[in-house]
Amino acid sequence: IIPSILMSLLCSFIAAQEATEIYLFDLNEQDGQITISNPINISKNEGYDNQPSFTEDGSAVLFSSFRDEQADISKYFIEENYRVWITNTKESEFSPAMLPGKKKYYTCVRLNEDGSQFLYKYAYKKKLPELLIPDLKVGYYLWLDEKRVLSFVIGDIETLQVTHFKFKIRYPIQSNIGRSLHKIPYTAGLGTNLVSFISMDHEVPEIYAIDPQTSDSKYITDALTGSQDLTWTIKGSMLMGHENMIYKFYPGIDEKWEPIRIESELPIEGISRIVVSPDGSKLALVVLEAPL
Hints:
The chain is mainly beta. The chain has one helix at about 5-15; strands at about 20-30, 35-40, 50-55, 60-65, 70-75, 80-85, 90-100, 100-110, 115-125, 130, 140-145, 150-155, 160-165, 170-175, 180-185, 195-200, 205-210, 215-220, 230, 240, 245-250, 260, 260-265, 275, 280-290. The strands form six sheets. The chain has a five-stranded mixed beta sheet, with no helix packed on it. The longest helix has 12 residues, at about 5-15. The radius of gyration is 18 Å and the shape is globular. The chain starts with a helix and ends with a strand.
């Protein structure tokens, strides 16, 4: 039985989620110009649909989707143009991502009925989920490789922590950071094995590149006002949404954020999370659900 105060907190969390949809676009990047087109609504679900991520082969998109007042994980198959539910639990699952090199497994942040929130490993077949980091309240995360995960840890101060499962060690590398974590492609000209994050240490949030092994970081540019999410194209451009526009910034070349072309008549508003497919040909975008 869930204590009434915890049930109240859980219901408040669910009620606070904005109604959103996920659109999949074709992405074209040539000669420094980016265009997205041919949007498809891949969630088609009333209420909260969010946190898309592509499978390693780019054939599908995983995302969190609300039904029966709690979140389960859905999978949309791109070529076949259909979606399926892959969890059906009493708990709520968020931020799904493929476990690198493990086609049969994926991970997600699970909000349990007692209010605890941890990172779990799930199997597509009927196996019980495995708790990965028992004592960390994980908000968001990024797999660096099969053995290392980078976690946005919720606490008095949000910290960025590396967990190395093989060596059984964990260490913080940054504090007071935003929720958006992405590997930086070498084509961005910033170096290799780097991750981008948004620092909240300044009046205007700033975007940095950090080496998860050494904690060395370097400033890239300021974030767009009011925006929390970014991603990278395979050719090295950083993308960030703001209201009904998407902007790009190529480090060392662009002096400011430049709008990209969106070929769509859809009433896209409130752009938030954004992610590019592994081959660079698709872009998944979270927007506010259009009023009926």
